[in-house]
Amino acid sequence: SQTIHQWPATLVQPVGSPLSLECTVEGTSNPNLYWYRQAAGRGLQLLFYSVGIGQISSEVPQNLSASRPQDRQFILSSKKLLLSDSGFYLCAWSLRRNRAGQPQHFGDGTRLSIL
Amino acid sequence: QQQVKQSPQSLIVQKGGISIINCAYENTAFDYFPWYQQFPGKGPALLIAIRPDVSEKKEGRFTISFNKSAKQFSLHIMDSQPGDSATYFCAAVNAGGTSYGKLTFGQGTILTVHP
Q: Which of A35, A91, B7, B48 lies 20 to 30 Å from A72 when distance is taken between CA atoms?
């Protein structure tokens, strides 16, 4: 069966520090991968998605970037964190079948607090 | 046109009652409609999903009703239990074109089931 792992579960970082959040998927190949941010326990905002290694699409302009160095690895990064980057970050995957909608499956997220 | 509107924002139900959450969409290209359940500090988990070629899908106490002509769908939770207390999100996917299976989420409904 497929599993998705995110780490760390919680992170406290000072303003201006760098960020690296990692997500890996097991049990499937060539997944679509997604990064979301959720504020105040509501409203998921899609940040990035990827359909293959090195292929990243950004949904909203921001202080963050994403990379996909391996098929089942998705990384969310920042060079200098802002207070507004605080939130709950979720990684998700789905099967890549463009002919029919597929569900996305989420990790348990990283709670990021910027001080 | 990409929005999915979800109501109510919050819902309080007595144990054993029926919880009903409604969603409406505009984009007729959506072809897959999942519902997610999210507990505090966890990622959303797929609960049940429906495609527009059926009007109803039932899994245990959870039922999706789908009205294609009205572009509306709803989640019914029968015999609601305190353990159902969570945030529920409806979503829609357009599998075609260049959307790459991206989910469009509703705003979420916080369900509280009183014992």
A: B48
